[in-house]
Write a structure and sequence with these properties.
By secondary structure, this protein is an alpha/beta fold. It has helices spanning 7-19, 22-29, 33-47, 63-88, 103-120, 172-178, 199-207, 220-228, 238-241, 273-287, 290-293; strands at 52-55, 58-61, 95-101, 124-130, 144-148, 156-164, 166-171, 187-191, 212-217, 234-237, 247-249, 259-266.
Length: 299
């Protein structure tokens, strides 16, 4: 009989298998719920096999579906690898370059350098994705990551640009009201559970246990805004705190709070001309920011 399968069928099938629901698959594919439903229904009809059990909790793979999912994952991995290898042979300084970084780095550090890169390489179309988590560079969710981390993923290559220093800050107006108090006598803006993995959050738990907490936040931008508004003292990256004249650094940076800035890509993309151009350009630009990043000089 004729083989009834095509890659689009498998792509929709894999999205549902990974998400466990039509809505989750629809989000990952950028389509609506009904499109995924029709595609899966049609795929099962063509195969004459039920691939999913429809449960109240979502879509669960049947035995047959599980077998197909394992094969489809292998195919997907091979296609991704082939596409990366093909992209890695691209020697033109044109095309799309997708960069992922954090909101704080983009706002306080990267924007002028990215603008300068675009001015020098107008043929490269830049896309920027701001996220707190690492995008999957293996799946080409992004080509380059500019990330604060102490342990970059093993499947990525690149360079450590510098350390990222953290220190406690408070608004000068807030300190004027409080007077000269020890750190543990101040009210603090604290990290919530979403930021508990940060070394700075661990420092707060150890060094400031039992202090008064005025607000908990889930982003560094929110922590900066709250400290600037006088809601309490806060631990901030020095490249943020030192750029705000209304904030005063309360103590020198603590080594146990530090992170590091990495510029990363996937090994298969390292020879792509636009990737190499960006890595070299941004590496030089950010090396010039080391004193700011490491809290050794006010910006």
């Amino acid at each position: 009989m004729n083989w009834p399968m095509n890659w689009e069928d498998l792509r929709y099938f894999l999205a549902v298998a990974r998400a466990g629901s039509l809505s989750g698959a629809a989000r990952s594919l950028g389509v609506n719920h009904s499109t995924v439903f029709r595609r899966i229904q049609g795929f099962e009809d063509k195969l004459g096999v039920r691939l999913f059990d429809r449960l109240a909790s979502g879509y669960a793979l049947t035995v047959e579906g599980n077998d197909l999912a394992a094969a489809a994952e292998r195919i997907d991995t091979e296609i991704d690898a082939s596409m990366r290898r093909l992209t890695g042979r691209d020697l033109s300084l044109s095309g799309t370059l997708r960069i992922t970084t954090t909101e704080t780095l983009m706002h306080w550090m990267l924007a002028p350098h990215i603008a300068a890169f675009k001015a020098e390489y107008p043929g490269i179309d830049l896309e920027l994705a701001l996220a707190t988590d690492f995008f999957n560079l293996t799946k080409r969710q992004a080509d380059i990551a500019i990330r604060p981390t102490l342990e970059p993923p093993e499947n990525l290559i690149g360079r450590k640009i510098s350390g990222i220093a953290f220190a406690p800050y408070a608004a000068t107006a807030y300190l004027g009201i409080q007077g000269k108090k020890k750190l543990d006598a101040l009210t603090w803006v604290a990290f919530d559970d979403n930021l508990s993995h940060l070394a700075a959050a661990q420092w707060m738990r150890d060094a400031l246990a039992g202090v008064s907490i005025g607000l908990r936040v889930n982003t560094l931008s929110a922590m900066f805004a709250a400290a600037k508004a006088g809601m309490g003292a806060a631990v901030l990256p020095c490249f943020m705190g030192d750029q705000e004249k209304g904030l005063k650094r309360l103590r020198p940076p603590a080594p146990e709070m530090a992170s590091a800035l990495w510029l990363l890509t996937h090994e298969d993309l390292r020879l792509t001309a636009r990737v190499r151009a960006f890595m070299d350009f941004m590496g030089r630009a950010l090396k010039g920011e080391r004193k700011v990043l490491e809290g050794k000089k006010a910006a």
